[in-house]
Amino acid sequence: MKIRRSSPSSGASVMAQIVNLPQLGMPELKALWQQLFSSEAPTHNRRFLERRIAYQLQLLEYSKTNQPLVTRNQQRIEQLIALEQQPSPKRAASRALLPGTLLSRHYQGVDHQVVVQDAGRFIYQGRPYSNLSQLAREITGTRWSGPLFFGLKARPKGSTATKQRGGR
Questions:
Q1: Is the pLDDT reported for residue 2 higher than 60?
Q2: Residue 68 has what pLDDT?
Q3: What angle do CA 54, 50, 36 make, to 5 degrees?
Q4: Secondary structure (3-state) at 24
Q5: CA dihedral 83, 84, 89, 92 (to 10 degrees)
Q6: Gyration radius from the chain CA atoms
Q7: Residues 7, 68: Cα–Cα separation, whole Å
Q8: Cβ distance 97 to 121 under 8 Å?
Q9: 35 in Cβ contact with 4 (< 8 Å)
Q10: pLDDT digit string, tens, across residues 61-79
Q11: Residue 132 DSSP code
Q12: CA–CA distance, 85 with 166 (Å, rounded to integer)
């Protein structure tokens, strides 16, 4: 369906044109369709024609570009994309553990100590681990968020997981 980019009537507001559609006869409605879509009306259903014409009138009127607005929106989109590509501060903080840092946790009467190695590796009881969640599972026997277990991440409000798992 080919759409014409010129307004069907000069001077009349879009709302006035839409309000006037029910007063038009079918030949006039079909002529307006022809002018807007550059094709014959696909049906004799008046309600369908009125709705599609009203939509097309609004589309033509309100899709006119406001170049300063388009430019500002494009800049906002670029800023959002740039922000999305940066690591979140929370994740960056948990990954920024310096080698040699000692993480300790008292769990079920036992003190557990983990040494942070380079490249995000950890040593616990002389054995290497690739992430804190593996370690937390080794210690507790259940699935845990490693950063949450070692206090690097705050527990979500309203969470009872720590109480149920015999934690802190």
A1: no
A2: 79
A3: 60
A4: coil
A5: -120
A6: 33
A7: 23
A8: no
A9: yes
A10: 877 767 777 788 888 888 8
A11: H
A12: 38
The CA distance from 161 to 163, in Å, is 5
pTM: 0.38
- Using CA atoms, how far apart are residues 145 and 154, in angstroms rounded to an integer? 11
Which residue has tokens 């309203």? Answer: 158
Alpha carbons 49 and 118: distance in angstroms, whole number: 69
More confident residue, 153 or 42: 42
Q: Which two tokens stand for residue 101?
A: 């840092």
Q: Which residue has the higher pLDDT, 78 or 87?
A: 78
Give residue for tokens 């080794």. 138
DSSP element (H, E) containing 70: helix 67-85
Phi/psi at 21 (5° precision)? -55, -45
Q: Given pLDDT bands bounded at 50, 70 and 90, which one contains residue 37?
A: very high
- Distance set, CA 140 to CA 36, 54, 61, 102, 107 (Å): 70, 65, 64, 19, 8
